[in-house]
Amino acid sequence: MGKSPKPLTILCHPDIAKWGEVQKLIEQGHTVVSTATPIPENITVLNVDLILHPAAWHMTPKHRKYLSLAVAAARKQRYPKEK
After folding, report:
1. What's the domain count of the chain?
2. Rounded mean pLDDT, 28-38
């Protein structure tokens, strides 16, 4: 497997960091930082290319029409219905 010519910086939830797919990203030369370990000072949320977390949402102008769905899904996760 070759190294990526355009490596990304990825902030990752500890459970997701264990995934085989994430390990392959590391092998390809991407920087993967788990939130379970101290985050290096040179990495901030502002310079992270990708955040992998069960509750993370990604929004760009192209995804604008999905904003209401993202808000609804986040609310369901944050405030699940009690049975």
Report:
1. 1
2. 87
| Residue of 33, 40, 39 lying closest to 14 (CA atoms) | 33
Closest CA to 29 of 43, 9, 13: 9
Per the listing, tokens 């901030």 go with 44
pTM, to two decimals: 0.70
Question: What is the H or E stretch that residue 51 is in?
Answer: strand 50-52
Residue 54 token pair: 């069960």
The residues with which 52 forms a beta bridge, in sequence order, are 12
Structure tokens at 60: 């760009």
Residue 83 located in a structural domain: no
Contact 17, 34 (CB under 8 A): yes
Domain span including residue 68: 9-78
